[in-house]
Fold these 2 entries.
Entry 1:
Amino acid sequence: MQRRFLCLFFSRLMVDRLERQDPLRAAAPFAVVWEDRGHLCIAAANGPAREAGVRPGTRLADARALLPTLHIVLDNPEADERLKQHLVEWCGRYSPLAARDGADGIVLDITGCAHLFGGEADLLDEIRAELRAMKFRVRGAIADTAAAAWALARYSKQAIVAQEELPAALDPLPVRALRIPAEIAVELGRGGLTTIGLMRRVPRDSLTARYGPTLLLRLDQAMGLAAESITPYRAPAPYRAALSFAEPIGTTTAVEQAILELLTTLCTRLEKERRGARRFDLVCHRVDGSAAYLQVRTSKSARSLTHLMRLFSEKMNTLDVGFGIEVATLRVAEVETIAPVQMALPQCGKSVEEDTSLDELLDRIGLRLGFDHVCRFRIRPSLLPESSTEFVPVTMASAPNAEWPTYRIRPVRLIEPPVLIEAAEIIPGKCPVRIRIGQRLHRIVRAEGPERLTPEWWRERPAAWTTRDYYRIEDEQGARFWIFRETRRAEPGERWYLHGQLP
Amino acid sequence: MGNTLPVEQRSVPDRAASLTIRPVISMERRFARTISVSKEIDLELPFHGLPLGCVHEAQSPGLANGIAFASLLSVRIPDPSGQKVYVAPDASFHSLGLLPYRVPPEQWIHVVARNSLDLAWTVLEALRCSKVSVVLAPVKSADLALCRRWQLAAEGSGATGFLLTDTAPKPSIASVVTRWQITSIPAPFGATFGEPHWAIDLVYCRGGRPAQWTAAWREERLEHRPPSRPLQRTALATANRLAV
């Protein structure tokens, strides 16, 4: 069967993406700029800008001189990549073999697909209409080879070329249409060979001798004499395993066995692909049509069968079996690649299992108590006691610790919220001599301070401003506390609070 | 240590003697790994140091003294990559207060376990992990079965557990290897608040005798000194209460 390829050419992809995002942009001239060796250069320009003379490849300074009202947008390669990926996946509805073709094209292998859409002409019209409705400027061509379709889409008015018409269709096109390097095209131009037709009349060995083998390879690929393959895009298969049972199961051992089989399938696949996952969702479809769910999360990507089986068995008693389970599916989400671990030699002592034991411990504790309750400390750049340390869950990466001035002594235990205490025999500006905490009276023999802490001015309104003077006190028995005097700007007077315990 | 028989008599297959020797030898083997508390305290301890791989108790009025004592001992454990796990029913632990004791905050893992069953389970699981070097947990009571399970887990993995208890509601931890009571005593004139002064009381020690010391934590060592005022032990234990 004769192979047919369809090539799509998106002439202004960057501009189209931005205009789709914000349709109002199309009215005024704007250009996409990128940085090239320290200068900002134009990468693409929209319709009004082009009419005013702004061309891609020129410097922004020159373009601004030409058109002072030009808007600029910085280029965003990641967004463009995502858009191209999305378009390739979208083209999957027309052919199973769709591939990215260079920076601005898509090629589809439509051998045997055209009749499903009513013929090649209708297929091309439909694709172009759909993409135009999506506000993309696109040109397409269908030919026998991918190279010929590429050339026709960009440089020819003809859209569909049959097998026997191919040489005639390619002849008038410039030599650039063969995807050769720019230097060779310039040299060919100097030699007078400006179109493909002129080039084909020259004997082949002299072309190879003068310009190298690439030129003839490209020509043969366009004519169909040399092979060229495309690597189609394949969506990654979802990580999913399912088991259906001849009779509904309900006993613990049966459910465990089912989970073990599902996990084995997925874990072997993850191991083969050197990946791990952080979320495992088990869905059990019951006989009466409802479903029961079980989810296991881990703090680090895991694929170890024993560890996951243990996590599942700890949660299994929460699974409501109902009248029986007919189908059990296990899905995996948040898949990440795991770096391979060096296996230790047997006589070196420590085995590989021990290195993951801390992660497994954190997973088990997090699964039972909640991952928010398993935290590490992070010292924040703040002196206020309620915000100077932060609990960061182990599942999240934390920023590095801030420097803490060691002369500032802090209590080992904080009492949140601070407890109001009564103070007597206060010398103005100093620490009281007697305080009462709850029912106990304490006589203070030693005090250090005050350490004045004011709230962060960008958080609190001035009316709610409270100033705190902290004192480290020791009473006559030797017990040591951290108390503060709170004064408010709005109200006169002061109040004393107990905030922490010092060793 | 009066019940160790001399070497030449150990080979005699005397039933009475072997019944006495076996627990002593096995205890020496079990508590072979120790850390030093301070020179004077090590002399009194039967293992010449605080044994690792087992569970201890530190009582203090309000938990601050116990936390500080346990932390400064845990820094001396020769396991630089070991994690320190702090399990508590609330989030009142302030790790900045331990910076004078050279405890790096990166090695702490803080777990909040609201009810006592979850707390006991977490301590058990943490003690089983070989990557954990020390587990600190404020507990109120633990019966013999639970203490035994904790002890077995700690021996299996080499982790050390410190149970922190408050002297005010009387704690009832059934069995630990050593029981300490740390109370604050008045500091002499001129001492700073970064150097706490404690009355360290070894209430119970397996294979040893109770003893008392007074010491100050200064320059990463416990310096022993006589108390500045005569101490009344019973009054101290009940008087320094944080009645909040």
Entry 2:
Amino acid sequence: MTLRGRTAVRWTVRTLSETCLTVGALIVLFVVYLLFWTGVRADSAMDGEIGKLRHQWATGETTGPGGTPPPDGKRAPGRGPTRDARPRPYTAGASFAVMHIPRLGADWAKPVLEGTTTGVLQRGLGHYDRTAHLGETGNFSVAGHRRTYGDPFKDFPRLRPGDAVVLTDGATWFTYRIDNRPYTTLPGDIGVIDPVPRKSGFNGPGRYLTLTTCEPEWGHSHRLIAWAHLDSTQPVAQGRPSALTG
Amino acid sequence: MYGWIWRHLPGNTWVKALISLVLVLAVVFVLFQYVFPWAEPLLPFNDVTVDQGMAAVR
């Protein structure tokens, strides 16, 4: 082989190895980004959202629709015609509630933000903006990441009937109880967030809650659904509900 | 490629090493800050909703 030929071979082999090394390093870095860095970013974003909410509530401003609803959920008559009877709309991309699910961890608390866009879901759980407001008749539906961005719904399959899903909007604690084992469905099955969700077993209007996340854990072929109904409410002034303290 | 870069960096070996380190860190920063956030939604982990959110997410 001529000297020139050898140089060419050497150049080819070297370039190929360098390319492989570069691609390998890129893949490793991307995995680090997904598994670690998105979690770091999301955890600090979620802590920030919760801190912001608690500060807002401490200074007397609630994010809930129209202040504190009475425990029976009905709006008190005689509230005065000056009050707006319609719930205050949630602001897109802003957090308005904190969710606790004891089954997913005693200290599991995540902010709920309005909307289900990519950017929103990177900072907390997302409320489907066309579904009912917290505690109202209808279906309060929330989506969250199963993996990456803090893995909020990593242990979703462990949810069981009777598990508590507790939310607060700063004025009221809402305790929902799960009614089914996680239900697997297709991504286009929007009936699961209907006011009376299809296939949920609920057969009349009520105050429901739906949680959605992806299935399988790292895939996107299906969705995992959990349904719950409103079990009880209590004003924040009465302390944390028994589902959280017990 | 890497040999070419190394040969074109100025200074002695220590200066070259230092500049290389800075370059590597800059590349990692750009990847984490701009490239990966752009590439990540193309992967399936984002699809957690059952409705129009899909279109926005995919």
